[in-house]
Amino acid sequence: MPKIVDHAARREELARAVWRLVGREGIEAATVRGVAAESGWSMGAVRHYFATHRDLLAFAGEVMAQRVADRVLALYAEADPHEGGASDRRFERGCTALEQLLPLDEGRRVELVVWLAYMTRARTDHHLDRLRQDGWVGERFICRTAVADARGLPLPTSVEARLDAAGEALVDRLQIGLDGLSLLSATYPERWPATEVRAAARRLLMETRPDPISECGG
Q1: What is the dihedral sign for C-alpha 83, 152, 74, 81?
Q2: Which of 58, 122, 152, 169 is geometrically suited to a Cys-Cys bond with 86, CB 3.0 to 4.6 A?
């Protein structure tokens, strides 16, 4: 009986090998040869799934971005998009959504380090431009959703949805602050332990609320 091969699982296994290499040695190390050695596969086997090195890099980046998106989608899976009213529960949910983008554990630390390497590479590699653009849209949507939660507004139901002008200005501030926090915490992890990163993200979201509320558990 022929062996059944789970091709999706094999492709994701290669993506994970890319992440490990990029996180440990930088994006230059994630060559087809390097990924083959990291995964224990032959170069021919890697090329069976990805015709070019650029295809492999792009796929690994897309899988990583989808992992973050899936965590946020799961967080809001049972939410009522028309729910209104500010509450501590909604504020906490907004904080948790933002935390999916931050290096609060080893898995998310690797995601952030790898993502920053990809974004640097995307400046000169147009094959990664769609990933760069989709990443911005996805981050913006997460920030917009968190602001809606913090302010007690109906949730955006698509990435094209917008808050009013004042709300979008708050999304700007939150996204800029979150990007700065991401860069600092990835560059200076010894100065930004997870507890400090979490607290800083909470303060950023707190500043978008219509009225101050007392700090609650993080």
Answers
A1: positive
A2: 152
pLDDT, tens only, 167-187 = 999 999 999 999 999 999 999
Strands (E), the chain: none
* Amino acid sitting at position 83: E
171 touches 143 (CB < 8 A): yes
Q: How many helices (H) and strands (E) would you count in the chain?
A: 9, 0
Six token digits for residue 8: 């999706």
Residues of the chain with pLDDT under 50: 1-2, 213-218
**What region does 40 belong to: left with phi over 0, alpha with psi -120 to 50, or beta?**
left
20's enclosing H/E stretch is: helix 7-25
* CA–CA separation, 181 and 76 (whole Å): 24
Amino acid letter, 146: A
DSSP secondary structure of 105-118: SHHHHHHHHHHHHH
Q: Which residues of 83-112 are buried (b: 16+ CB within 10 A; e: fewer)?
A: eeebeeebbbbbbbbbbbbbbbeeebbbbb
Residues 6+ apart with CB under 8 A from 189: 103, 109
Q: Which two tokens stand for residue 12?
A: 């994701």
Residue 192 to residue 194: CA distance in whole angstroms: 6
Q: Is 0.70 surpassed by the pTM of this model?
A: yes
